[in-house]
Structure formats: C-alpha cells, structure tokens
Write a structure and sequence with these properties.
- With 481 residues, the chain is α+β, with helices and mostly antiparallel strands.
- It folds into 2 domains: 3-158, no CATH class; 173-464, Triphosphoribosyl-dephospho-CoA protein (Orthogonal Bundle), CATH 1.10.4200.
- The protein is built from 18 helices and 6 strands.
- The protein has helices at residues 3-6, 14-32, 54-70, 98-111, 149-155, 160-196, 217-240, 246-268, 275-298, 306-317, 333-341, 345-351, 355-370, 375-389, 393-399, 401-414, 423-437, 442-459, and strands spanning 38-44, 76-84, 87-94, 118-124, 304-305, 463-464.
- It has a 4-stranded antiparallel beta sheet with strand order 2-3-1-4, sandwiched between helices. It has a two-stranded parallel ribbon with strand order 5-6.
- The radius of gyration is 28 Å and the shape is elongated.
- The two termini are 54 Å apart.
Length: 481
Amino acid sequence: MTADDIFSGRPAALEEILVRRETRAAEQTAMLRLGGQSLISFTLNIPGEIKQFPLSRAAFEEGLSVLEQALPSNAALARHRTEAVTGYEALILLDLPPVEVKRVTVQLEETHPLGRLFDLDVLDHGGRLLSRSKLGRPPRQCLLCSRDARVCAREQLHSPDALRERIGQMLDAFFRDQAADLCVSCTTRALLYEVSATPKPGLVDRSNCGAHGDMDFYTFLDSSAALVPKFRELFCLGWNNAGTAPAALFPQLRAAGIRAESAMNTITGGINTHKGLIFSIGLVCAAYGQAAAKRVLSGRGGLIPLADVLASAAQLGQCTLSDFESESLPQTCGLSSYRTAGITGARGEAAAGFPTVTSVACPRLREWLGRGFPLNDAAAVTLLYLLCEVSDTNMIRRGGMEEAKARKAQAAALTQGLTARNFRARLRRLDQEYIREGLSPGGCADLLAVGLLLVFLEDAGCVTAASPLPLRPPLSAPEEP
C-alpha cells in the first residue's frame, strides 16, 4: 500500500479542527462533572488535513480495544465517542487515581506497535492534564527522529509528506502483519492436520509411510516448519500488491514458490513433501492477502467473503495455464498428464477457483464435523470422497491412466454405506492395497489440505462462506491396527 492508498478521505478544514477542539474541551468538562477521579481523552496523532480514513478507524478501534483491556474491569463510569471529519475520539471517565491511569496510558504509548499514534491524555477531576514528567518519563519522540516531538512540530522540521509516509508505513505494517499471522497460523494447521489425519490410503500418516519409502511423518513436520515463513511471504506479496494485475503479480509469486521449494529441499534433503501444496496453498495465501488488503482499504470491515479470495486465486491460477504450451519447463507429472490425456491437474483446479475443494472437500468436512466426528475422522473420510472425484496426476504417474480410473470407481463404491463403525476398516484395507501397488493420491491430499485451510480460515474469523461451519471437535487419535 502507498500513502496515497491509505490517506483517502475528505480533508478537515482548519476551522472545523478549531471548532472541534473547543467542543472536545466542553465535552471533557461535562464528563468530569459526572464524578470520578480521572478522565482519558483518546485521539490519534495524525498530522495533515485528512484525519478520517479506513486505517485510521482501524487504528482507533485497536487502540480503544487494548486500552479497555489494560484498565481494570468495571472501572469506567462513563464513555463517549465521536466520529467526525476531524478524526476519531473517545472519552472514558474512571474512578481511578490519575497517576495510576497515566501509567497505563504511557505503557501503551511506549509498547504497542501503533502506540506512537495513540494520543492518550489523562485529566484529573479538576480538568488538569497530567504530563509524562509526572511519572519521570521523557517527552514523546518524533516519528522521524529522536528529538522531542513537540519541538519538531513547532519548528516544522519535517515535511507533511515525510510524516504521512511514515504513518502509512506503520499502519500498513501493523494490519498486514496482524492478518498474516492469522493466515499463516491457519496454513500451518492445515499442513499439520493433513499429514496427521489417519488412516490415509497410500499416504504418509501417523500410522505408516504409505507408498513412500523416502519420507515419514517427521519429514512432513520438518518441511511444514520450514515453509511457515514462506507462506507468510506469499501472503505479504498478495497484500502489498492488492491492486496489481494478476499477470504482473504472478511472476513474483512463482519466484517466491521456488524459494519455498528450496527451503523444503534443504530441510528434507531433497525429498518432495509439499511441492504441490506450495503451489495450491501459496496461491490461496496470496489471494487472501489481496482480499484482506482490499477489505481494509475499503473501510468495509467485517469478514472477507470466501468468494472474493477464491476469485483472486482463480485469476492468479489462470496465469499458470500457459505452462501447458511451454517447452522450457521441466516435464513434471502434471504437464505430462495434460499432454497425454488433457488433464489440467493442480493448475486447472486453481484456475477454476478450486471447485473440487468447495464442492467436495469443504462440504464433506462440514458434513462429518456436523455429525459429531472428530476432525481426524472427518478429514480421512473427506479424502475418500476426493478419491472418487479427482483425476490425480500422482496416481496416473504411479499406476497409469486405467489404474487411476479403476481406483476412482473403487473409492466411489467404498463411500456407499459408509458409517462411523466401518470407515476405518475400509480405509485401512485400501491403504494396504495402495502400499502393495505403490499408489499415492498426493493430489487429493493437497486438495484436502486446501479444504482444511478454508475451514480454519473461517473458524478463525478470517473469511465467511455461504454456510456456517460447525464447531471444530478435537483431533482424535488413530485406533491401533
């Protein structure tokens, strides 16, 4: 985001600012007449004419929230807030000693990432302003240098554009990092829960290594840990390029994906645990970053529609379709399947906005969770439903086209009459068959992980889907064979 993106709104005229200053003083006096020992007057330090814009509202709500959390419960006798073109303001009347309250406000101003933007004045019952020197604290520093902020402001040592640029950077970084933390937390859970779900036919799980002789459960844990900062990078690329055309952003994402693969190979010794997921989940992280940034800048607030995230992912995914005509890319199983059978695989799924995830993975997870199944069991059953629907390029590579088709039909038959009593036995028998035949539905596992990610994003209050998700039961332990 640029400063011009952030500071969007009607400028406040000088007269409006002066009138509001007088009105605020009258409101403070009226509040103090209600009693109490102290009054907090909370505004934002936003220089310039534009005071009210989406990120200033978000910063104000953040400051008000942490302030309320820092104060003793039930300490407030009265509250008053104002939203005007001159900015956002709040008054909180407290039955607490002014010095005690000042300690709280100074602590927030000095420790919160946005604290330098918080202007938390404390008045005693007589309306006298408490200074930081009362607590032995030095004056507040300038946003751009180490001098006293009042001196810099009085002598106009810094240009308004430089101050605006710095404030924009602070706001952007805070809300980007806040959203990135949630996204990466959900992403990491999705990777860990996918590999942990047991039993999974032909795949690494907590019971065995499936049809893989070069990796185990702990290889996946190591790889997942190495990818955490890489998925964060992909989210931030999306956020930082919210208004960038997909064709211009995608090369940056591809380069970040290559760096993620390198991190995976370094920690696993060259074993491919997550290459497919780096592609699919990386696109979702970037798309969520774009959608989150647009939502913040729009000032609409609230949850992000999942449809917005998937639409952005589809636009980015469509940039990969040209790979099918490229002669310079390595001959992967995905490209080979397209050239021999027209199967678009992970690229086609992403370019269409992950329809298999939204029509199979998420609904099945919701259905079985809603029936009271633990997440482990819901995920294992969902994988079986994915096996019915997906032309898995990993299955094609390992067993051939006809074998892959036969296994889809077999999975469909196994879903008939599936119950809580019989699903584990069916999946275990299928697991043994896949191990004997060297089959591994890695593409289906990737789609399961994307489905888990979307469920977790909704569970964390990041996105909203068309229908609500059930509460998530705890992960169950697999039964002994």
